[in-house]
Amino acid sequence: MPSINATDSSAINDVLVIGFARDKKSKKFSLETGDLAFDAAAVIEALDDLGATAAADEVIKLPGSATKLVVLTGLGQTQKNYAHETLRRAAGAAARALSGHSSATFALPANSLSEFSAVAEGALLGAYAFDEFRGTSKSDRKPALKKINLHSKNAKKSEYSKALKRAEIIAKYTHIVRDLINTPPSHLTPDSFCQRFKKLSTGTKVKVEILKDDQLRKLGYGGIIGVGQGSANKPRLLHLSYTPKKSGKKPLRYALVGKGITFDTGGLALKPAQGMEAMKSDMSGAAAVSAAILAIAELNLPVAIDAWAPLAENMVSDTATRPSDIITIYGGKTVEVLNPDAEGRLVLADAMMKAAEVGAKAGGLDGLIDVATLTGAQVVALGTRTSAVMTNNPEFSERFLQIADGTGEQFWPMPLPEELRASLDSPVADIANIGDRMGGMLVAGLFLKEFVAPELPWLHLDIAGPAYNDGKPHGYTPVGGTGVALRTLVALAESAAGR
Ligand code: BES
Ligand code: MN
Ligand code: ZN
């Protein structure tokens, strides 16, 4: 993790990051340096000569005179106020372009505290590298930018240092999620996932409980056991809980459930080799919810959270679940496993049932959110950068979407059409694990809906596309694990705290 500081000094003897934009009509460039005075003329002339466009993700490095280097990051069209996500991405793109550098000062147009926060987040999120598994090539790699300074005349105000602290926490846990996603199944198993969070939780206000395979079997978690039984790496159920310090009123309580398939081969419905490597990211939901609760606890938010990560490795072997096998989910519903590649919903069903049971005992849940790389159909429908939200409670969904709008994470509402439910009927069990192929994302959502009481506000987040970037890096998003959903989950807890 890079360090971050704010400075109000205009004597900058450092790499300087500034924004640039272009007027829609006149095509004239403007430099956007926030409250830092900057002599723009020479740079603007160079931009014309360079054929720059100021588009997002355009980063131009120029030799500086007073400073070591001037780095221009594209903000698109000239605006009076730039959208938070524009600032976040521009800061992130610049931070990415500065790997190998030890320090840089960012002077971007932040006219408010929330814009300042967005720049801080973007810069920290962009300064990420994953070189843990490089051996002999390690020394050829440029490490991520180490030290970030943000220029602002408000640098000494306490709200501004608080915003930096928050951005650091968000970035720290996003980096942890990314690291876990990028870690291959040779080095991340259901058990080692648990051990990592046990370690991360030590000394925090988060309590850890790990259910092992023999306990899971005894207690009736047929989904987690059924999915995990083909692997030598035994399944687990990780439960993290955070209770805020007692205050006057009863805090809201949410349960977060994340799909934790440390590798998804498809089981006996074996996936094609091409692209299978991306299935190391099938635990992205589990990583997001587990890191989110740690972030929420570190922010001391007055919200009670339980995070549940059902963890299993979906493998092919003589002990793997066969198509037609019937399993019993926690609570008693039986499922005919017609396709062992539709495994996420099985482990989620167990964990969601348990989460609701524990939530009810603790005085009732105000919401249950599951986060999962659940369907290829999600990627077909919404592409690789927009996640889907499905729900049994439109108000909860709308509130979530509004919060997501502020975090810059792209979510879009999707329906759960009742008429698709019949396609999940099984001739022999309570329900089958697959239904109509068309609308596969919605069918998966309808399956999960069977495991939530109708009166419990529930959101299902399908992050199959956005969780893992196997294209080019962009904005603050690196190649590989992205950390998606964490920021919006934390923001939801913040909004619940401030109600
Ligand atoms: N983990 C996959 C979904 C996935 C696909 C995530 C692509 C990220 C990128 C999931 O377990 C799966 O295999 N789903 C099947 C369901 C089908 C068998 C009903 C799918 O989407 O093909
Ligand atoms: Mn699968
Ligand atoms: Zn999967």
Q: Which helices and strands appear, and what pairs or packs with what?
A:
Layout: E1 3-7, E2 15-22, E3 29-32, H1 41-50, E4 59-63, E5 69-77, H2 84-97, E6 103-107, H3 113-126, E7 147-151, H4 158-182, H5 190-201, E8 206-211, H6 213-219, H7 222-228, E9 236-242, E10 253-258, E11 260-264, H8 284-298, E12 304-314, E13 325-328, E14 334-337, H9 344-361, E15 367-372, H10 376-382, E16 387-391, H11 394-407, E17 411-413, E18 431-432, H12 440-449, E19 458-462, E20 468-469, E21 480-481, H13 486-497
Parallel strand pairs: 1-7, 2-5, 2-6, 6-7, 10-12, 10-15, 11-12, 14-18, 15-19, 16-17
Antiparallel strand pairs: 2-3, 4-5, 8-9, 9-12, 13-14, 16-19, 20-21
The structure holds ligand BES, manganese (II) ion and zinc ion (ZN).
The site of manganese (II) ion has 4 residues, from loops.
Describe this protein's structure.
The protein has 499 residues and is an alpha/beta fold. The protein has 2 domains: 3-152, Leucine Aminopeptidase, subunit E, domain 1 (3-Layer(aba) Sandwich), CATH 3.40.220.10; 171-496, Aminopeptidase. Helices cover 33% and strands 22% of the residues. It is built from 13 helices and 21 strands. The strands form 4 sheets. Strands 8, 9, 10, 11, 12, 15, 16, 17 and 19 form a 9-stranded mixed beta sheet that branches. A hairpin with a 5-residue loop joins strand 4 and strand 5. Helix 4 packs antiparallel against helix 8 (284-298), helix 7 packs antiparallel against helix 9 (344-361) and helix 11 crosses helix 13. It is elongated and about 75 Å long. It starts with a strand and ends with a helix.
